[in-house]
Amino acid sequence: MILSHNRRPIGLLKLGLVITSVALFLATGMLYVSQTRQQGLLTATIRSSGWVAYQAQLEFVKTEAEFAKLSLVPTRDGLRELVLRLEILRSRLPVLYDSDEGRVLSGIVDTKDLTQPLEATLDSVIDEVGALDAEDGETASRLRSIDTRLTPLGQVLQRILLESVAYNQEIFRRERALAETPGVVPLVLLFICGGCLALVLYLQGRRDRLRLGEILEAQNAIRAMESNLRAVIQAVPACVAVIEPESGRVSFFNSTAASLVSADPADPAWLHFVQAVHEAAGEAGRTKWGMLSMAYLRSPGQFVSLRGTICDVLWERRHQQLIVLADTTQVRSAELQVMQAAKLATLGEMATAIAHELNQPLAVIKMAVANARRLLEPMSGGEAVLAKLERISSQVDRAKRITDQVRRYGRMPSEQLLPFSLRHAVELAVSFVAEQYRAANIRLTIEPGFPMEVLVFGEQTMFEQVMVNLLINARDAFEARDAGAGPASREVTLSLGCVAEQVVISIQDNAGGVSEEMLPRLFEPFSTTKSTDKGTGLGLSLARSVVRDMNGTISVENVGAGARFIIALPFSPPVLGRNAA
């Protein structure tokens, strides 16, 4: 937790240092470029401004020299040369203020105001010199007088040149200073950048060490957790095994699983066990989480009832399947005993109806026998005697079916789950309560929605008991509804249908339904709406266990004027002869 809190300030500090380093590098580069430009500008200024002033001053000196030479001995060629010099000087004056170099000089001294007034004087001097004649004796004196008029121009050019020289000296001084100092600032900046980078590397190394410490700590925690998990699994009093989905090989099992199957993971018994689990899970074994109930043949003649789950897990960084099964053999035996007790109690309640049902065929037999004797006395009517005897045979068969139902109902169910015809089982359960419904004036409507060939997987006797319990509960609900009031219309509808890959049995009555506070816990043990002398509260709980063992579901809802129980069961797989359900 402390490491995670320290990581954020370190990351922000690293980001700040990186940004600072980049900014300093950019500043160093910009400083270098700026100094280079300044040096180039200074050099250009020195070369341009000083050179223009110097050229103007040089032309003026040459002109003065030409004036001095012609003042002694005027000649025609000398006058032409003097005019040319004056014109060159005249062309140099606008350059002092009307050019790039002149604008640089204008920043030092006002060359335009100084030189423009003298341009007209120089133009008149050029005209006068051009009009002189070398043969005239006064030409020399006139040249000396004209030369005196150019003295102010010489002074102005001298001033401009001096100002330019002084400015250039200052520029040279600044250039030398820049040449000495610029290396210090970039060097300092580079040292700062290097220090920032070194600090970034240090922080990165520290962060990596922190991360490495966290990873090592997490790995140690995972190893400790795995060790604790294995210890917990070993201590669990249930069969726990981890298998590979593709090969079915067992990669881990606890001591309970070893005692149930084998302590050797290479034992073929494990392969047989895994196959039995997958067959019991069916479609649920291919989902993320599936419930299963199975009977495992541990040794010849010894079945063990197991109930649990199979799910996908990540074990040792691989996707595998986890099997968790609890030995429910004793619980199963207790459930069977309770179921048997409940059936015996129901048989006692139904004894009167069975006796009444048996009295009718016995009376018919007695009368038929009497009639047969009477018809045999005159030895006539052989065909009539045959008919009477046939009737006796059919009634005897009817009595046999009734006694068979009682015997079948009172039989102790087995733990072996096998495919059976669902519709046939429902018809047997309906025939068992048909007389009670007739006596209670309840109309039972059956809506078959699938053929007799549809099979489900389970224990047929226990499923018949579930159907009988639901039908008897509907009968008892009518009696509770009509207690203290006149009888009303009593109807129970039993519907059979197929939805997707499941068969659905629906039992709906119009007996008023289940109270809202009882509805969520109706399938809990000892939850009942009957009085204590009529119900134990175990019938629906056992019904849910039986349906769950068949990989099905049972639910209840209030519909219209009554309640509707819905049982959904998967189709039986086509391959038989398994050890597990």
From TrEMBL:
Residues 353-573 form the Histidine kinase domain. Keywords: ATP-binding, Kinase, Membrane, Nucleotide-binding, Phosphoprotein, Transferase, Transmembrane, Transmembrane helix, Two-component regulatory system. It comes from the Bacteria. Its EC number is 2.7.13.3. SMART domains: HATPase_c (SM00387), HisKA (SM00388). The keyword Phosphoprotein applies. GO terms for molecular function: ATP binding. It is an enzyme of class 2 (transferase). The chain crosses the membrane at residues 12-33, 183-203. It catalyses: ATP + protein L-histidine = ADP + protein N-phospho-L-histidine. InterPro entries: HATPase_C_sf, HATPase_dom, His_kinase_dom, HisK_dim/P_dom, HisK_dim/P_sf, PAS-like_dom_sf, Sig_transdc_His_kin-like_C. PANTHER family: C4-DICARBOXYLATE TRANSPORT SENSOR PROTEIN DCTB (PTHR43065:SF46), SENSOR HISTIDINE KINASE (PTHR43065). This is histidine kinase. It comes from Ancylobacter koreensis.
